[in-house]
Design goal:
Layout: H1 13-60, H2 65-69, H3 73-84, H4 91-104, H5 119-130, H6 132-135, H7 152-159, H8 173-182, H9 195-200, H10 212-224, H11 231-250, H12 258-263, H13 267-274, H14 285-305, H15 312-329
Helix pairs in contact: 1-3, 1-4, 1-7, 1-10, 3-4, 3-5, 4-5, 5-15, 10-13, 11-13, 11-14, 14-15
């Protein structure tokens, strides 16, 4: 036993989850404002379903439910999942996704801290493969107080699964690029949302794709509070930017610019809030750099050469699978020992 005194740090699971939700709050509020009542109903339903699924799993496992529910992990899982869904998706997408995330992505592996894959991304990919129409039907922003804002009754109909009027549907930036490039149109001739629209959130997409600026500010807040480190976000975004720049320099007519790659889709949300998941990412600094670079590489490959316009969820899950291998070969240095784990000599 090591003698006192001990150094205590003000850290806990609930504090960590709370800080992440606080960092997500501005982008979430803007997204809910931009997409109105259907998005609010879907977001609320998804988070509540995640809490119910967590309670059910804890009861089946014979654990005391109340303390585990108070850690905030189920709320954050539902929150992140809702950020990646089409804002006007029907109610059952949110409920099914929440149960997939909590039951399959988390508790099948043993619960909090033991899951191999990010639960929200497990649900996102499963829904995308199983229900491609509902998961790729995006709408243009329809803010509160605008001329075209839907009434609550109309919003409720959409939430319950009634068809979305064609006048409101709109392709995302990545969808638009993928479709135009497949028809042989030069990337330099493709006109899409402006830089200002991508930065402030006036664009179609999920809640986590709307405001690049608020997502980055939230990520920087997490780095400042030491909830995450800079290694995974910088490695992921840096690798994506570097490779996209090379492709764009080689043939600007066939490949998206690096700025479009960075500001569109869920890459910023993935870099700061998903790939940095403490449970499913490596523990060492070198391991995190490799992990982040792998995510950036896979995002570029899937977006550029795959059938899906977005590749963040697939990239994170694939790299989650490599995390045990990365941790095996890149262990953090133990205080008082060298990089091989041998005790440091006290001899002068």
């Amino acid at each position: 036993m090591i003698a006192a005194p001990y150094l205590h740090e003000n850290a806990s699971i609930s504090r960590t989850m709370g800080l992440v939700m606080l960092a997500l709050f501005p982008a979430t509020v803007l997204g809910l404002y931009q997409f109105g009542w259907p998005a609010i109903l879907l977001f609320t339903t998804t988070v509540l379903a995640a809490i119910v699924a967590e309670y059910f799993c804890l009861k089946v496992a014979g654990k005391i439910a109340k303390p585990f529910l108070l850690d905030g992990s189920a709320i954050l899982t539902g929150w992140l999942l809702a950020m990646t869904l089409p804002p006007w998706a029907p109610w059952w997408i949110g409920i099914l996704g929440a149960f997939l995330a909590i039951v399959v992505g988390k508790h099948v592996f043993g619960g909090l801290g033991q899951n191999l894959f990010n639960p929200a991304m497990v649900a996102r990919v499963a829904l995308l493969i199983s229900f491609p129409f509902e998961m790729t039907l995006f709408t243009q922003p329809n803010p509160f107080f605008s001329v075209y804002n839907l009434s609550f009754n109309d919003s409720l109909d959409i939430f319950l699964g009634y068809p979305i009027p064609d006048a409101f549907t709109s392709a995302t930036v990545l969808d638009f690029y993928k479709a135009e490039l497949s028809q042989g149109i030069s990337a330099l001739q493709i006109k899409t949302d402006s830089l200002t629209q991508l930065l402030w959130g006036n664009t179609s997409g999920s809640l986590g794709e709307t405001s690049a600026l608020l997502i980055v500010l939230g990520g920087l807040f997490l780095i400042y509070k030491r909830v995450i480190t800079w290694h995974i976000p910088v490695a992921m975004l840096g690798t994506l930017t570097l490779l996209a720049s090379v492709l764009f320099w080689f043939d600007p007519n066939s490949y998206m610019s690096p700025v479009t790659h960075l500001l569109s889709g869920a890459v910023l949300l993935g870099a700061f809030f998903i790939a940095t998941d403490l449970v499913t990412s490596p523990v060492s600094t070198r391991g995190q750099l490799i992990f982040g670079a792998g995510c950036g590489l896979l995002v570029l490959v899937i977006r550029t050469f795959g059938n899906y316009p977005e590749g963040v969820a697939f990239a994170v899950l694939l790299m989650n699978g490599f995390t045990p291998l990365i941790d095996h070969y890149f262990k953090p240095r133990i205080y008082g020992r060298d990089r091989k784990g041998q005790p440091l000599s006290n001899e002068p």
